[in-house]
């Protein structure tokens, strides 16, 4: 897609910078050719190899069928993809009046563009960034002993599990029209856990929506699992769900933990990316408990318990090291989403 003049300019400046395609070279190229898409490093590498092998940066004459990818066509395609980077290859093909294969070649081979998945993340409100920053800075300044800091959460596990249609295929000469049936109201079990860097307490199972009294009953079981040393030192984290922050619940928590609480007014809302149960445990558990296809709620609970017991101290240590990294990254981006940067 580069003209001869652009290629010569690019190679000269790369050689002046000790054969390196530096940020300075890129800036010089942008200034000299503002309407040209910045070449990919692979394009620069190929030009250097071409010059060393043939003594020229011009393309050799091609045999066979003539290509439809002229410089003008490539410039048009590059502009279309720059203006609409989520455009599909088929849509690009229709808009550019070229075949799908030719459009794919233009995007992948000539422009060196790659398809990247878009992650679905929880929406952050305008005030959430400041709250996330406040918590992360507090976390670093508090120097918590993470062996005695328990992050808690609950989640529902459905007996029917889930089927990802994008990863579920049946190979056949004729379409067998295979279906996956799931009940309208799937049987499910609620699971509550608390995680520290040393161990996981739980799972504790429940079958009804958690209200204040049911939540306190779960917390009583949690307290019963703590050693005397943990009871005197443990810091307890929870999110701001209604049952967690009722007056009755908070009174119970303060009676048992004093001011060693990470809860309402400190824990930032909509922040599953900062708590180990959310960014690690639930995803790992749901990826494992359905492998043996549990058929009853008891079998489902057994699989959840089996997975929980399989988590090693080394894994927990890595999870909490990752949490520190997440806290620092959250501060670096000003409280915004950061998962894509990890």
Strand order of the largest sheet: 3-2-1-4-5
* Main β-sheet description: 5 strands, mixed
CATH superfamily of the largest domain: Ribonuclease H-like superfamily/Ribonuclease H
Give the terminus-to-terminus CA distance: 33 Å
The 3D shape can be described as elongated
Enter the CATH topology name of the largest domain. Answer: Nucleotidyltransferase, domain 5
Proportion in helices: 40-55%
Q: List the secondary-structure elements in sequence, H or E.
A: HHHHHHHEEEHHEHEHHH
What is the residue-averaged pLDDT?
86
| CATH architecture annotation name of the largest domain | 2-Layer Sandwich
How many domains make up the coordinates?
2
Question: Which CATH top level class of the largest domain fits?
Answer: Alpha Beta
- Unreliable segments of 5+ consecutive residues: 163-173
The number of distinct helices, counting runs of at least 4 residues, comes to 13
Overall SS class: alpha/beta
Rounded to an integer in angstroms, the radius of gyration calculated over CA atoms is 28 Å
The proportion of strand residues reads: 5-15%
């Amino acid at each position: 897609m580069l003209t001869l003049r652009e290629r010569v300019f690019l190679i000269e400046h790369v050689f002046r910078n000790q054969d390196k395609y530096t940020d300075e070279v890129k800036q010089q190229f942008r200034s000299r050719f503002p309407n040209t898409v910045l070449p990919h490093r692979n394009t620069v590498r190929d030009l250097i190899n071409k010059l060393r092998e043939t003594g020229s940066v011009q393309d050799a004459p091609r045999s066979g069928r003539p290509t439809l990818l002229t410089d003008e066509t490539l410039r048009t395609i590059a502009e279309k993809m720059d203006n609409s980077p989520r455009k599909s290859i088929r849509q690009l093909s229709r808009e550019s009046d070229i075949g799908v294969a030719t459009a794919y070649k233009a995007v992948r081979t000539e422009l060196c563009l790659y398809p990247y998945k878009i992650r679905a993340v929880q929406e952050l409100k305008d005030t959430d960034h400041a709250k996330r920053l406040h918590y992360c800075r507090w976390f670093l300044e508090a120097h918590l002993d993470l062996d005695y800091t328990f992050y808690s959460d609950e989640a529902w596990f459905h007996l029917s599990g889930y089927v990802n249609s994008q990863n579920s295929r049946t190979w056949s000469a004729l379409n067998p029209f295979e279906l996956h049936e799931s009940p309208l109201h799937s049987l499910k079990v609620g699971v509550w856990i608390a995680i520290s860097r040393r161990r996981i307490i739980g799972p504790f199972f429940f079958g009804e929506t958690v209200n204040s009294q049911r939540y306190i009953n779960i917390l009583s079981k949690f307290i019963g699992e703590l050693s005397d040393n943990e009871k005197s030192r443990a810091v307890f984290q929870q999110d701001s769900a209604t049952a967690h922050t009722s007056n009755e619940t908070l009174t119970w928590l303060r009676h048992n933990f004093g001011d060693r609480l990470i809860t309402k007014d400190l824990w930032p809302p909509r922040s599953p990316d900062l708590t180990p149960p959310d960014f690690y445990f639930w995803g790992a558990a749901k990826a494992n408990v359905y492998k043996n296809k549990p058929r009853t709620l008891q079998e489902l609970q057994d699989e959840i318990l089996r997975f929980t017991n399989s988590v090693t101290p080394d894994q927990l240590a890595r999870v909490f090291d990752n949490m520190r990294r997440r806290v620092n990254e959250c501060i670096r981006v000003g409280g915004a989403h950061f998962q894509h940067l990890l």
